[in-house]
Amino acid sequence: MKRPTQKDVALRAGVSRSTVSYVLNDQQANLKVPISEETRQRVWQAIAELGYEPDARAQSLRRGNTNIVGVIIPVIQNPFFWQILSGISDALQDAGYSLHLSLNPQNSQQGANSIRELKRHRVDGFILLAGVKHLLPGLTHYLRQSGQPVVEITATEAEFDHVIHGYSNGTRELMAHLIELGHQKIGFIYGVTQEAQGFDRLHVYRQMLQEYGLPSNGSYEVHCGDQLEDAYQAAYTLLSRPDRPTALMVINDLLAIAVMRAAGDLGLTIPGDISVGGFDDIEFANYIMPRLTTVSGKAENSGRDAVHMLLRRIEQPDLPRQVMRTEVQLIVRESTGQVP
After folding, report:
1. Does 250 map to a domain?
2. What are the pLDDT digits (tens) for 157-184?
3. 332 exposure class (CB count in 10 Å sphere: 0-12, 13-18, 19+)
């Protein structure tokens, strides 16, 4: 069936098309002859009978905005990003906005396609999740040229408005926790696509090894890819050494699960033989066996904060740069224990 139009509504209600438009947009302040309540009710009844829905694209062109926010995420495999996305989605819905989701590509050709796709979709602003800029350098240039409001969720300072979702303090807490348990040989499984992605954690790890006079020659620091198999192989190799570490810090909870699998396949118990700690506090962390000690970044809160920051920027374009820091929290569970 043909989609009903404002003209159809006007015919059904016995009014002019402009009257339908005035009723829909509640524009009566400047009318010479106000629309009567009886006429308004006829229009709304006709709308209900026909099942008329306003064209969102046409409305956005008239208003000059879309009530859509573009959200760009680096990967879809890690549940941590979906937690942030959940906070973003909830806050946008509360404000009457919807989101257009874009997955960050993994190569330059896909990157160019991604930017073209972003240009095709009119949005009122952008939210960038952690690490996107490092994976798609051309994106920053495009966003800068677009003039659209941008908010980043990032581990470090940024040129746009940003929510700092950094783990420096949490890394210090996790390292102190492991050291208090007697661990001196502490390894780090550093699984990232780009070195800069988790440097806030790597820097503190190296710093604390030096502060406490622990082995810091890099022999227990293993760099690998960001896939589960990458972390599994890295941990399997490291834990197969005769001088293996007694504790492992892992760049995120998802990869920590792969590390725990590698330990189990080597016949090692957690935390009896090896302690494991991660970051992000994804939902799985509290349901695997043993439950994972982790640093919670309160991801959903970061998503909500980013939305509120973006909406302020849309309403007040001349605001000074906005910066907000997310609190982190060490959650000690069952995967860490006394040094064997």
Report:
1. yes
2. 888 999 998 899 999 999 999 999 999 9
3. middle
